Structure formats: C-alpha cells, structure tokens
Here is the input.
Amino acid sequence: MQHRISIDHLLCRGCNLCLEVCPKEIFQDSAVIGSGGFRLKQVVSPEKCTGCGLCELCCPGAISLDCLPDEVFATILAGRESRRTQSQSRGGWKEVKSLLQPGRYFMTGNDAIVEAALAVGCRFFSGYPITPANEILEGMARRLKEVGGKFIQAEDEIASIFMVLGASWAGLKALTATAGPGFALMQEGLSLADMAEVPCVVINVQRAGPSTGQATRPAAMDMREARYGSHGGVERIVLYPESVQEVLDLTIEAFNMAERFRTPVILLSDGYLSHLSEKVELSEHIRVYDRIYVPGKPAFGPTPDFSAPSMPRFGDGENVGVTGSTHDRFGKRATADPSVQESLVFHLDRKILEHREELTDCEELFLEDAETAVVAFGTVGRSAKWAVKEARRLGKPVGLLRPRIVYPFPSLRVRELAGAVRKFVVPEMNQGQMFHVVSEKVSREVVSLPQPNGQIIDPRRILRYLIEGVW
Amino acid sequence: MNIRELRKVYLREEKTTFCPGCGYEIFINCFLRAVEKLGKKLDDYTFTAGIGCSAWVPNNYFRADNFHTAHGRAIPAAIGLKSANPDLEVVTIGGDGDIASIGGNHLIHAIRKNVSIAVFCLNNFIYGMTGGQVGPTTPLKSKTSTTTEGNLEEPFDLVRLVLSVGGKHASRYPTSYPHLLVKGVESMLLSPGFRFMEVVSQCPRQYGLRNEIPTASSMLAWQKRHYVSKEKARALNSGKLEGRIVFGNFRSLKEYLGFLPEEE
Here is the structure.
C-alpha cells in the first residue's frame, strides 16, 4: 500500500529528526530555506514508506501520514467539544440539618472545628501532626469516616495544602489545620489558592514563636503572616474567634466565605482556644453555601461584577486548565501580558474588597461615648472585654472593638471611631503586629500593649493599664 | 487518526513552544497515540503538573482538566484529586527536578500510600526552563550552567529509587524508541495502583549543546548507544551490558537489580 505523506512547513521546526529516524531515508533537505532559517524538508521516495510512523511520532505535528477523509475528520473535530457531563447549574445557599443532635455540648475549640466543618459539608481533610492542632487531625480521622469523607495524613504540610487544593477541584469542601511552622510551609500552596481561586479553609492554631518557640503555649504571632505571608500578597479573609461557640460559628462562616468568594479562608485559633472546653449551642439548621457552577461559563476572573467565577469540578467535562501562572478567564496562561496580570490581581483583591461591608463583623462595647477604644482580637479580645466592663464600672470612658473578621481589616469602622475617641489601645499576644495595622488607618494616638510571653493576657493586666496607664 | 490529527483534536494549540528537537514533543505524540490505542479520549484523564517545561505539556496543550500546581507539588494535588473523586483517572506529568528533587518526598510517600495515579517523570537531565542548571538526574561529569567543570554528584536512578521504596510498576523508556514508549504509556494508563515512568528525553538546547551532543538526532543516537531494552539485555552477556542502562517495565527491585552490575 502506498502511504500518503505530507509536511506542513509552518509547523516544521527544522530539528531534522525525520531525516534521522526514517529507516528508509524518505525525507531530505530541500534547497529552499524557510522563514525559520533552516532548509525545508521534502519527501523524496514515498513509495519506500512502510508506514512505521516513526517520523510522525518524533515530529511536532508537521508530518501527516495517511490523513483521514476530510468529512470524517470534521465530525471528529466537531465532537470534541460536546463532552460536558453536567448540563445543570448548581450551588448557592441552602439549609442543612445539623449532623449532631441539636442542643448543648461541652467541647474543646479543636473539637468544635471538627464538628462545624462536618456540619457545613467539609468532606476532605489532609494534615500533618503539629501541636496544638493535633486534635483536629485526629477528630477528622475519626469523624470523616462516619460521614463518607476522605482523610489523608500527609507527609508534610506542603503536601497537605496541595492535597486540599486537589480535592477542592474534585468538588469537595476541604480543610487543613496546622500551627506556626506548618503554616509557613503552607504559604506556597495558599498563594496558588489565591491565584487559581481555589476555595479551602486553613486553620492556624497559633503558638508562641518564632520557630518552634513554645509549642504548647498560646500566642497571636501569625496575625500578619495570615494576611501577608504568601508571595503575591493579595487580599485574604482571616477570622479569629474568642470562644468555643465562636470557633464553631466562624468555622461554618469560613467555609461559606471560601465557597462564596472562591478564595482560601484562614481561621486563626491559638493554643488556648484549641484546648479550652466550653459550653456550645448547636442549632438544628445550618445555612450553607456551595460554590456556583454554570456550565460553559469561564472558570476564572476577572468577573464584571467582582463576584466569584463559576467553578466546575474536574470530570464535569469543562476541560478546565487551572494554573498559578497569570491566566485569562478561561485559564489559558498569559504570562507576558501586563494588562491580563493587572486585571487579574485587581480582581483577586476586589472580589473581597467590594464585599467589605458584609465582611465587617465586630463586637462593640461602650463605643458610643468612649474616649479610649481597645482594639483586640480573638482570645485577647475576651480578656479585654472583661477589663473594659470593669473599667466602665469604675467610671473610665473606655470601649471595645473586637473584629471577628480580622482581614479585610475593618478600616472604615476604625476610621469612624477615630473621629470620636482620643486613643486606641491594642493589647496583643505578640510584639505588636495589629498595632501597626491600626496605626496605619488612623491619625490618633495608638498604643501597643505587647505580651509575647506565651501566656494569655491576664484581664487584670489590661484593666490596670486602663486605670493606671501602666503596662 | 494520524499524529497530526490527534494533535489537532486534543491539543489546545497546534504549534507548541518547545525548542526544536525537544523530546517532550515525542512524549506528547506517544501519549496521544497510546490514549487512542486504548480506545479512550484525552479528556477521560485529568492531569496535574508542577513547574518547568514538563508542566507545559498538559497545562498549555492538553485539552483536558488539568491542574498546573507549584514546583514539585503535582503529586500531592493528584492524590487530593484521586482520593476526593476515585472515578477520576489522574495522570501526573512532571520533570526530573519536579518529581525527583523538590518533589522527591512527595514521590516516595505516594508510592508508600500506593495511590492509584500514573506519574510520568520527563527526565531531560537538566533544568531546561531556568537555563540549564544541574539536576538530580544529571549524569556524572556532565556540564551544566552550575557545574561548568562537570557534575560531581552521583545522579538518581529513578527506577531503582521507586522500586526500592516499594513501587510495583516502575518503567523507563527513552524517546529514541517511540513505539516502545507508546506501549509503556498504554501499560501505565491501564495498570492499577501507583505507576511510575521515567521518560528519558532529550534537551538539545540546554543539555546537548553543553555536552557535545548538540542536535536532537545526535542525542537520540546517544540514547541508543546508552540504553538497551530489558529483552535485549537478557540476551547480552554482562560484559556488553556494562555502562548501559536497561529500560522497560519493572515490577520488583529484584528483577531490576538483575540488570545492574554487581556492587561490591
């Protein structure tokens, strides 16, 4: 049988492999030099061809051996687009029943995270042992089995976060939990999650550092890292609860936000909250948000209204290309285009910032007529609350602002307050991290009350400062 | 379909950006051919990739679900995908730096966990995209941009590495034998459990030019001198085998060690 061989000179790179691999030496250099600066190849004795196919296997698509009839190939080409398995849109708000019997429970912060995650529909966990987050890993190992989820103990935190990202693209709500040193390892994956818009939740149970520091002691030393730790540094949502009840509620919120904004959400806890046992109330119904998928819609930003783009699952037949490189709305890499890069980065920021109002969630106490505002987060906020109440009882005009959502930072609310109060006070279980954030926003006096000693701040110490001005 | 037609159907772009003579073109062709021979479509598979020239294979060109992760992290992402949805056929395509250097830990643990994924390590002996630095598989005495007087570090034998930590399916195929590579890919896509293939590929631009094998064809000829299939190797006596690397599919360390010169 005579084989039909043709060469598309536009696709030839001049690598000469066809000349080399053909056992019958059918290909030769012609006298013509093409636009690539090399001699164009020609077929000299097609009758010798045995159809072994070595030439085309080595060629970047220029050589064709025995083409199909045009009409046959046209049907094949047309058929390649029609593989979408899901033609229905999905996602949005829904209400689900609590997995546990509704009512009162007595549980630790770490257990509350496990129960909340399962309730909101998390079905994948991957993690690596680290104190003081271990009970989340162990709880997930035990409980995910019971609800048909997947648990993997990974070889390190880097693998954990990347498994979470993989699982998220497979369509599951995914969680990992760690502490300071592990959180540092996860920054690489978190940066990818920012760029590729992968919803996931990361729990960082903060402990006193730097480095191994005091592994079992509470601190709030990753307050800045949670927001700025990754290369690229786009907007992030970071939450920090004060009690086990809030741990439970905010874990549910964290998943809902991750799914709504298609972004990683960091839930900060600390060595105190993680092991604190408290009464929690479980309601019967939980409001849950599932990521939106609309068949055929582009899977990436920028979106015209700064909403999260549609997110298909792998296997939906969308043939989605997910990349951490700069990409267009269809996921195609566009790493040399400054306008694509700029609009993508602004999209990543603005899809969070445009929802700033609903992403402001602060507990406020006596701020109407306060002259001094204590700004405190998480566990410290709880100490500060007692101190502020006591100081008020003693007649001091103090108030409390405790943002449950740390980032996006409630700048508008803080600026508003700056018009009324004389002084901001920022007690922290670190050397003064959020102090800088508050200072940036206001032109009032801001005082840092640092306590990086691995102990929760004694409410009496804050009270003493509020009364006597001594830290 | 011929290869050109397969590329038109399954690649996002007909013209790729690989250097002239790049071995990854041969891998793409062989992969598409294997998928066709199995009666499958490319988008029946989902892909994960790391960073480097190898990652461009699925991410830039394969018309299928694919996840271009960070450098070395293709295997954990694949494990996440596979365990979250066991119906997915997950294929990981990485380079030698990706899989054996920065992602080396992920590789050995994936083998230990025996996750059902197919890992292709496109080994071109060098960090091509970043300019030709020494890698974990760069042969001894090879010149690279960071070993200008020759590499002094013993390279990894990836097949041996995989088998020695309990791999049950470890194969090695050079791009100079495309038909055998197609068979190897078919077996990779069909087998259960963790599967590994080292695709010995040529990088004429970064590796060849520095090491006096400056063209794709001379690199393939070099491969043919240095690599011998396990079927042929059985027929050769050990003297002739010396210095040559055996390729094929290996199921156990014992089988593979039979082809290596005895160590003192």
Remarks:
- Chain B has one domain: 22-225.
- Chain B has a mean pLDDT of 94.
- Chain B touches chain A through 66 residues (CB under 8 Å).
